[in-house]
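Q: Now give one record:
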Amino acid sequence: MATIPLPDHRKSLGIPKQLIGVLVYDIEPGSSSDRGGLRRYDFIQSANGVIVRNINDLREQVGLVGLGGVLRLKILREGQDLELSIPLVEVVYRKGN
């Protein structure tokens, strides 16, 4: 799950005020995000070259890429700009696991 970061989170994580994006708060184990190397507190700035202003912008890019495609993310992690390629795979969840 990702959302626009609160001012306190920006400050504690060293995210400059002028950067636009969403903050990753949670990663589902085994998900595409997990498998692609996304981590809790990564700050997503763009997806496929499109600025991510809110979670809906990110969802739109995921939908455009679709299952089997690769989502290219520009992120800020611990003060470092990184690029990740996230293969979008279907995840099957079973009750009790």
Observations:
- Strands lie at 2-3, 22-24, 43-47, 50-51, 70-77, 80-87.
- The two ends are 20 Å apart (CA to CA).
- The mean pLDDT is 90.
- DSSP finds three helices and six strands in the chain.
